[in-house]
């Protein structure tokens, strides 16, 4: 007889990652020889720039392969401080900086360090799939606020004010957004900041991972920069994964009050210990080295965004807003709900839409319910123009065949 282990209450509250599940299924179908187009993963198709790879190789050859301080080497913390000063007009000391094995770990460490039972975290929806699950794992309560297409998927000040209670511990603010690509202007951030100033018990966790991927001359701002009165209760999070095409290197970082950073370090002391030493040295080069490749990355993503928005808006039953940043589009398929696919399956919801599209046309995308806003879906356009053009052909064919 095999013993049946009793799992924790925390793990029973958490759902698997829908984005990872979609990518895994697409890869399995590809291994079976099927011609699948995967538009689920939020991962740049560009290679890590050569100067960054060279820095990693150099670190290996110089023997920089040992344990480091739990939350980052001094050289990387100094580079992060310089980045915040240079690009965001924010002044931090190395003692205010945390380096973790990916942006996801930054968020998890912050929640583990701060959340108690009954603490609430306000999360605008659509949201990145991991936000509410990490809050639940840490014992907190996610409070989602629906932000629909009429507001360009952005949180309005009156919505934020209504969502805050005496139990609110954090607001998560992600700009540009995963999954929508929507980015907050300076004026929009100031309006949210005015609400937060009136609620001094609420802390702000701003996820700026897509900061460098904004288009059409959009001027990027982060909330502690816009409203200095929030500096002492803001954790400003970023990382090298998206802008520098370093997803597999697993380096995220954040800056905030020393007490919070120290508590996050304590979590790391007893969990992961340090991020990969080699990745840290590569990240020093990413932040301190040439940024000449970024305009090329942005131009390619902007052209792809334009192509996808135009093509999706020409598709029967779809409506796709034009996002300000990231590498996602987030169309609505609400008008197709209730129609019938050629297979005879009724499109009952966005999950069925995504499932039937994958089965019939071999296009993998992530359904909107996973992001907290049904009737929608997310496409990652971080892949080649040729692949995206073929994906549009298949999506248009599928939608036209619904009856």
Structural class by SSE content: alpha/beta
Give the C-alpha Rg: 21 Å
- As laid out across the biggest beta sheet, the strand order is 2-8-7-6-5-3-4
Write out the CATH superfamily name of the largest domain. Type I PLP-dependent aspartate aminotransferase-like (Major domain)
- Alpha carbon gap, first and last residue: 52 Å
From the 3D structure, determine the CATH topology of the largest domain: Aspartate Aminotransferase, domain 2
Give the secondary structure arrangement, pairings included.
Blueprint: H1 9-12, H2 18-31, E1 37-38, H3 50-61, H4 74-88, E2 97-100, H5 103-114, E3 120-125, H6 130-137, E4 141-146, H7 157-163, E5 168-174, H8 186-197, E6 203-207, H9 223-226, E7 234-239, E8 252-255, H10 258-269, H11 277-288, H12 294-313, E9 328-329, H13 350-361, E10 363-364, E11 366-367, E12 377-380, H14 385-401
Helix pairs in contact: 3-11, 4-11, 5-6, 5-10, 7-8, 12-14
Describe this structure in words.
This protein is an alpha/beta fold and 403 residues long. It folds into two domains: 9-47 and 293-401, Aspartate Aminotransferase, domain 1 (Alpha-Beta Complex); 67-288, Type I PLP-dependent aspartate aminotransferase-like (Major domain) (Aspartate Aminotransferase, domain 2, 3-Layer(aba) Sandwich), CATH 3.40.640. Helices cover 40% and strands 12% of the residues. It has helices at residues 9-12, 18-31, 50-61, 74-88, 103-114, 130-137, 157-163, 186-197, 223-226, 258-269, 277-288, 294-313, 350-361, 385-401, and strands spanning 37-38, 97-100, 120-125, 141-146, 168-174, 203-207, 234-239, 252-255, 328-329, 363-364, 366-367, 377-380. A seven-stranded mixed β-sheet has the order 2-8-7-6-5-3-4, sandwiched between helices. A three-stranded antiparallel β-sheet has the order 9-12-11. β6 (203-207), α9 and β7 (234-239) form a beta-alpha-beta unit. α7 (157-163) runs parallel beside α8 (186-197). The longest helix is centred in the last third of the chain and has 20 residues, at 294-313. It is globular and about 60 Å long. The model has no long low-confidence stretch (mean pLDDT 96).
């Amino acid at each position: 007889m095999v013993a049946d282990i009793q799992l924790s209450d925390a793990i029973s509250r958490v759902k698997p990652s829908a984005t990872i599940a979609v990518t895994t299924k697409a890869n399995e179908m590809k291994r079976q020889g099927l011609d699948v187009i995967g538009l689920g993963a939020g991962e740049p198709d560009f290679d890590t720039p050569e100067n960054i790879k060279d820095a990693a190789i150099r670190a290996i050859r110089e023997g920089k392969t040992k344990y480091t301080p739990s939350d980052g080497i001094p050289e990387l913390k100094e580079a992060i401080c310089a980045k915040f000063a240079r690009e965001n007009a924010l002044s931090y000391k190395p003692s205010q900086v945390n380096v973790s094995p990916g942006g996801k770990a930054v968020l998890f460490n912050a929640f583990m360090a701060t959340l108690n039972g009954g603490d609430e975290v306000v999360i605008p929806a659509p949201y990145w799939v991991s936000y509410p699950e990490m809050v639940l794992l840490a014992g907190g309560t996610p409070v989602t606020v629906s932000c629909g297409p009429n507001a360009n998927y952005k949180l309005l000040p009156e919505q934020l004010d209504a969502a805050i209670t005496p139990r609110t511990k954090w607001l998560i603010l992600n700009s540009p957004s995963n999954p929508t690509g929507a980015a907050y202007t300076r004026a929009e951030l100031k309006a949210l900041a005015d609400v937060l100033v009136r609620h001094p018990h609420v802390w702000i966790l701003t996820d700026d991972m897509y900061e460098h991927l904004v288009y059409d001359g959009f001027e990027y701002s982060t909330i502690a920069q816009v409203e200095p009165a929030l500096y002492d209760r803001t954790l400003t999070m970023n990382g090298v994964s998206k802008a520098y095409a370093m997803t597999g290197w697993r380096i995220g970082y954040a800056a905030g009050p020393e007490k919070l950073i120290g508590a996050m370090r304590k979590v790391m002391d007893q969990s992961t210990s340090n991020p990969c030493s080699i990745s840290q040295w590569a990240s020093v080069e990413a932040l301190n080295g040439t940024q000449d490749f970024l305009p090329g990355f942005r131009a390619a993503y902007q052209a792809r965004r334009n192509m996808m928005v135009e093509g999706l808006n020409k598709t029967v039953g779809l409506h796709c807003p034009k996002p300000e940043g990231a590498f996602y589009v987030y169309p609505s398929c609400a008008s197709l709900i209730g129609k019938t696919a050629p297979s005879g399956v009724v499109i009952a919801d966005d999950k069925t839409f995504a499932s039937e599209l994958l089965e019939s046309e071999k296009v993998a995308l992530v359904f909107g319910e996973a992001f907290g806003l049904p009737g929608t879906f997310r496409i990652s356009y971080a892949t080649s123009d040729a692949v995206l053009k073929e994906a549009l052909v298949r999506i248009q064919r599928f939608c036209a065949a619904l009856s």
